Backbone:
């Protein structure tokens, strides 16, 4: 799905701001007719949970309603008028006046509706958006809803971050011509010093298509006609980690007289990605990942996108020497992906498939284990929802040069019976939708090289490991030994590139000790050093992503005090002592493997 852009033939109106807000009186999804009867207002974009002092709103399970008046620009006569919601977590319904015009399940990808027939240029309409935060066995991520003895609906889920909900990203109104570009796909390659750009353009009706590639100065460097083809850019400037260079593919749609009726510009970078043996190659050169698993999580806003935090977070990543991050555990706002494109940050792009592991439930609650994959738990319907999440992720992010790998799940129960039957069709789907990028998943602690049932299906092994925290707590000598043995087992059995996609220790800023005391800043630093020593002894090792970039909010639970504290930065983005140590390790690496390892 193309992100709306303002062009010579398209106009864009941002609908962010303060909206009327109401919590549904019951679990019924339909709103009451007319204006919302409410005194509450809420900002868009933002999660609603932390905005209000009423705990009933924070803990609400079900629908909430946003509403505002929108005026269509009078100059849009003869144009198609489209309403776009960048994300509604986790289900959205859109009404123009009292007419349902769109609905969508999936909390982190956009959806839109052509509302031309329901509005008039120069006129005003009442826009109402319902958002439902419910998680079930057939949502991504999954969850369970129960009803307490006093009649309250309660939501439980298996992921360790707070279930923030609402309109956390922007809402747009935009125009496009009657005949227009519907989609653009760009795949780049290298032929010596020449960049190749395979393009495909979809239009809503038969039309003549012309494409031009412009360099960063706006100079045309290649051109072609037709909806499909290949452009060649001589002496191409590559998109590289830490050194981004973007071209622009300008697509013109022409009428029978040769006049331009629509134009759309899609940025792209020329680069290649390849897995060769135990190496991960970008532009044919080995690349070593340094960085983080992150969360869209800030005080008050929750998962609401914020450009100030976006800029500051990327500044902190540059300062510390991070060259990459994983969008744990859902697709991030498109503004984040575009920023990564412009600044040369490498991204592992992940679906919202987190929590497909009922062994975690048994461990946390002390209940008898249930089969993760079965007709009564995660089944064919679950997999269909998972497949749709993959389709929407790739459709949205396929043209971003920063995205070098798809991660289709975090910590699934890949060692359980039924895992292969569940995941094999999803891997096949991912490769069919995009054969140009490697595919991975993030393996849970329970899954080892001896019992994992799906690792051979993937190109890169991303492994989450917490030796020294959840296992061998406070005993870093034992933890280092366990970790090295674990990683060597994966390397010897599968012969694939390996990275640790999560490792970390909860740390309270300001807590200190002269001994190896968990939760202290000294322990976090020593924990990371022990992990790094083990990493550096593994030849097939290609990267390290610390969990987490910053402290983040989690659900209620006695194992969390004020959220997850594994951040290298606090939730307010203050550095812990480990931040300076990571900077000393990462800055000299520059995307290369640590010295002393074997290529």
Residues:
């Amino acid at each position: 799905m193309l992100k709306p852009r303002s062009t010579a033939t398209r106009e864009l109106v941002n609908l962010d701001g303060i909206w009327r807000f109401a919590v549904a009186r019951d679990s019924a999804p339909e709103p009451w007719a007319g204006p919302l009867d409410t005194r509450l207002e809420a900002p868009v974009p933002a999660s609603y949970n932390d905005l209000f002092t009423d705990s009933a709103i924070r803990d609400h399970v079900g629908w909430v309603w946003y509403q505002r008046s929108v005026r269509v620009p009078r100059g849009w006569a003869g144009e198609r008028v489209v309403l776009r919601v960048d994300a509604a977590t986790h289900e959205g319904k859109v009404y123009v006046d009292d007419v349902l015009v769109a609905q969508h399940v999936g909390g982190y990808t956009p959806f839109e509706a052509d509302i031309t027939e329901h509005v008039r240029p120069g006129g005003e309409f009442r826009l109402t958006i319902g958002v439902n935060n419910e998680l079930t066995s057939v949502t991504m991520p999954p969850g369970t809803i129960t009803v307490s003895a006093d009649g309250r609906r309660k939501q439980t889920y298996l992921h360790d971050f707070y279930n923030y909900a609402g309109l956390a990203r922007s809402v747009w109104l935009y125009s496009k011509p009657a005949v227009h570009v519907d989609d653009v796909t760009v795949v780049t390659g290298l032929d010596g010093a020449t960049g190749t750009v395979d393009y495909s353009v979809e239009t809503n009706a038969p039309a003549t298509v012309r494409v031009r590639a412009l360099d960063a100065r706006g100079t045309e460097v290649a051109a072609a006609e037709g909806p499909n083809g290949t452009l060649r850019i001589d002496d191409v400037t590559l998109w590289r980690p830490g050194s981004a260079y973007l071209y622009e593919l300008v697509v013109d749609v022409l009428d029978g007289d040769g006049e331009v009726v629509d134009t759309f510009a899609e940025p792209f970078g020329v680069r290649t990605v390849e897995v060769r043996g135990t190496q991960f190659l970008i532009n044919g050169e080995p690349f070593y990942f340094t960085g983080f698993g992150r969360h869209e999580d800030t005080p008050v806003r929750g998962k609401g996108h914020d450009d100030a935090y976006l800029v500051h977070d990327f500044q902190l990543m540059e300062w510390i020497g991070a060259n990459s991050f994983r969008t744990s555990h859902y697709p991030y706002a498109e503004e984040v992906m575009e920023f990564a494109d412009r600044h040369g940050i490498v991204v592992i792009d992940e679906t919202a498939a987190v929590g497909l592991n009922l062994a975690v439930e048994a461990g946390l609650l002390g209940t008898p284990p249930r089969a993760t994959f079965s007709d009564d738990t995660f089944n064919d319907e679950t997999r269909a929802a998972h497949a749709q999440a993959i389709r929407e992720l790739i459709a949205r992010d396929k043209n971003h040069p920063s995205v070098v790998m798809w991660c289709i799940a975090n910590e699934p129960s890949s060692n359980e019976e039924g895992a292969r039957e569940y995941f094999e069709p999803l891997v096949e789907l991912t490769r069919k939708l995009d054969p140009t990028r490697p595919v991975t998943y993030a393996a849970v602690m329970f899954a080892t090289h001896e019992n994992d049932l799906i690792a051979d299906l993937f190109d890169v092994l991303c492994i989450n490991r917490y030796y020294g925290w959840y296992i061998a707590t406070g005993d870093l000598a034992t933890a280092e030994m366990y970790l090295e043995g674990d990683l060597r087992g994966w390397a010897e059995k599968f012969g694939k590139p390996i990275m640790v996609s999560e490792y970390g220790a909860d740390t309270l800023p300001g807590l200190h000790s002269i001994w190896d005391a968990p939760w202290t800043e000294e322990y976090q630093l020593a924990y990371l050093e022990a992990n790094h020593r083990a990493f550096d002894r593994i030849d097939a090792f290609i990267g390290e992503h610390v969990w987490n970039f910053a402290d983040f909010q989690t659900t209620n639970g006695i194992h969390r005090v004020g959220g997850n504290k594994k951040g290298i930065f606090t939730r307010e983005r203050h550095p812990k002592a480990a931040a300076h140590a990571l900077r000393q390790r990462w800055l000299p690496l520059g995307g290369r493997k640590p010295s002393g390892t074997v290529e």
